[in-house]
Amino acid sequence: MRRTKISDILKTGEVGEEYLVKGWVRTRRGSRQVNFIALNDGSVIHNLQIVADVEKFGEDLLRRATTGASLAITGKLSPSQGSGQKVEMLAEKLEVLGDCDPNAYPLQPKKHSLEFLREKAHLRFRTSTFSAIARVRHAMIFAVHNFFTSKGFVNIHTPIITASDAEGAGEMFQVTTMDLNQLPKKEDGGIDFSKDFFGKATNLTVSGQLEGELAAMGLADIYTFGPTFRAENSNTTRHLAEFWMIEPEMAFYDLNDNMDLAEEFLKYLIRYALDHCQDDLDFLSKRLLEEEKNKKAEERSMELLEKLRFVVENEFVRLTYTEAIQILKDSKPNKKKQFKYPIEGYGADLQSEHERFLVEKHFKKPVVLTDYPKEIKAFYMKLNEDHKTVRAMDVLFPQIGEIIGGSQREENYDKLLARMEEMDIPAEEMWWYLDTRRFGAVPHSGFGLGFERLMLFVTGMGNIRDVIPFPRTPKSAEF
Ligand code: ATP
Ligand code: MN
User: Fold this and answer.
1) Which residue in 44, 256, 389, 453 has its CB near the most CB atoms, within 10 A?
2) CA dihedral 265, 271, 272, 274 (to 10 degrees)
């Protein structure tokens, strides 16, 4: 008999029919006569209740069906007498595929802390929380490709190893095959990277944007969706050293077109989750309520599904950085010195506490901030007429702060070159990027969505380490 997934059994299984299921035991309980085994195979948040007759299978066999053990069971589907499920399976055949020593197995049929499970990341896929997150993550990956495909965008794989620093922030992991104990030196004592694998210094990419722009200058609408690496030593709940980023880049788009696309994109993704991940989101919503039940009312977040619907149904507020600074400067927490970084005026780099104040307290809606001072943004952003600000846009979300960063790009060759010189970006090495401004340059725009920031929002999880299967953070690269 062929194996049927539990998700299919619960959806379309017919009472009285016989099925074969395989999965892992979540719990087993029972009496002398009958055992109830909750079996999960990862296809859906719900378990299938297996009813096993003790006399039929013998206590020795059933005793091996401990939490974590894997089983294959053939049986008839029957209406369930118990509460909590509509159907259950009356076992006819039961085979233990893999035993699981209950004294050694770290996952018990009780609530484990997220911190504990992070140390058991090799096993946490077997918990309800992490299997739900993994399924939602998959649905979001699919939705990203769906959205752009429906709009005629072309997916471009940009390089993971690069010689350029797209952000000019210098937070990069070097890539080398040189022997670190015997580095070849130049006459001036510096390291001779011409002896390295690529003949120059290389690193893991911090963004696919620069190469994405090259593709957009021929294909018009492209997007990347790839791993991104930042050696920033910020141990926050929103930063990973290795994360996934989606970066669309569009020829002929100005900043307004860019904002429209970003808003439509985020709403599409969240609606997709609401439409396709109901069971998992219900579970995650309950998890969040449980986690926050001891918090004071004003510290609790909005109920998960309500929060997701709220974003889908409301227009994002759009305002300039300068307007935002004014609001923040006059705000209560600023006057009462409650911000860790007080806002004195124009020029301040906004911290997550400021972003969240604007979104959660002031506007109570997602916010798009535009036209930041050029000093705090990347070299490639288009300079405004005031020569002070650039056409940048950050999308700010409740709970997260910045979820998207983007801009209209500087397409004027001379202005771009001047910005690169001002900011010490080596123009000779970026000749290929500058070339696009020499040969048929057009206005264009793009943005980057941090995929795990989206996942934080959609799942209501509080720590970015819990929405990627194998987090990479400072001093942590186990598994
Ligand atoms: P932040 O100020 O939060 O560090 P950033 O300004 O460095 O963000 P960008 O360079 O604009 O971010 O990158 C685009 C997007 O990538 C961000 O909006 C965010 O969603 C995501 N992102 C940036 N850094 C990280 C990180 N270390 N881990 C996870 N996601 C990140
Ligand atoms: Mn950053």
Assistant:
1) 453
2) 150
